[in-house]
Amino acid sequence: MVTVRAPATSANLGCGFDVFGLALERPADIVRVERAEETTIEVTGVGEQYIPTEPPKNTAGVVAEELGTPAHIRINKGVRPSSGLGSSAASAAAAAVALNELYDCGLTRRELVRVAAEGEAAVSGEAHADNVAPSILGGFTMVTDDAITQVEASIPVVACLPEIVVSTRDARRVVPQSVDIDELVDTVGNAATLTAGMFRDNPELVGTGLEDGSVTGSRASLIDGFDAVRTAALDAGATGVAVSGAGPSVLAVCHDDGQSAVASAMLDAFSDADVEARAYPTAVGGGATIERR
To answer: Which GO BP terms, alphabetically (predicted)?
Structure first.
């Protein structure tokens, strides 16, 4: 039996659509696996009623099939489904690391990213690695077809999750299929600024780099109160704000001493919009960890 904790993640980060992602210190999923003749899945925790337990429809079940490692998989959800915090990725990442250990498959963490990404296809329809990469590797990650780059960072952030459901498929539909050259130049500049900020552990640079007019702008319309929440966070000291992943979570980058004020301001702004929400003052953290063998 192997137990693995895999963290929530925030992908895109405004300017890095389908490329950038970062691991959060909390919340997280806990997945326990044990050998079995065929794969079965049991789910408990937040939003358990919305998660399929049929292996071909569950990200962890798909991972077991990809690895050829049948198991009884118990998933304790700490990351709410349809939250924009990589809920499906956390389960896939934890299962990949746990099954690799249980069956002694010998795959590296980077190789497991591609396996876990196949699990993501069960939810989004495509094998994206922007959430599973940081959930497995930790820190800030950049994923392309040919490479995965990982940077250790400890930037303070607040992830604010409103009681709104935005599906990944719906959020992808509203993203524009093309942008003009001026917007492209801005996006490249912001991506470079954010990446430099991660290398330097500099919240000001990271926050500046979160700016994005296309993906964030299109997805913000799916989140009641987003504009007010963004303004409130910036007024409270956040260095930058973006939609986390597909949403509806909103991610704010902060200084070490500013998380409490930013979290309170975001919650108050959602409340003013008649939206209940929960804030996670956290930071860029490590990847999946084996907690028990």
So the answer is: threonine biosynthetic process
Is 80 a known ligand-binding residue? yes
pLDDT at 171: 60
What is the CATH T-level fold of the domain 2-151+285-292, as seen in this structure? Answer: Ribosomal Protein S5; domain 2 (3.30.230)
* 10 is an annotated ligand-binding site residue: no
253, 226 contact by CB (below 8 A): no
pLDDT digit string, tens, across residues 270-292 = 999 999 999 999 999 999 999 87
The answer to whether the beta carbons of residues 48 and 36 sit under 8 Å apart is no
Catalytic-role residue among 25, 66, 120, 211: 120
pLDDT of residue 233: 98
CATH, domain range 156-283: 3.30.70.890
Put residue 84 in one of left, alpha, beta given phi > 0 → left and psi -120 to 50 → alpha: left
Q: Is 91 within any annotated ligand binding site?
A: no
The verdict on whether 168 is a catalytic residue reads yes
Q: Which residue has the higher pLDDT, 229 or 181?
A: 229
The answer to whether residues 135 and 7 touch, using CB atoms and an 8 Å cutoff, is yes
120 annotated active-site:
yes
Give the start-to-end residue ranges of the domains of the chain: 2-151+285-292, 156-283
Which one of 3, 69, 141, 168 is the catalytic residue? Answer: 168
Report which of 158, 160, 164 is spatially closest to residue 274, judged by C-alpha positions: 164
* 86 among annotated binding-site residues: yes
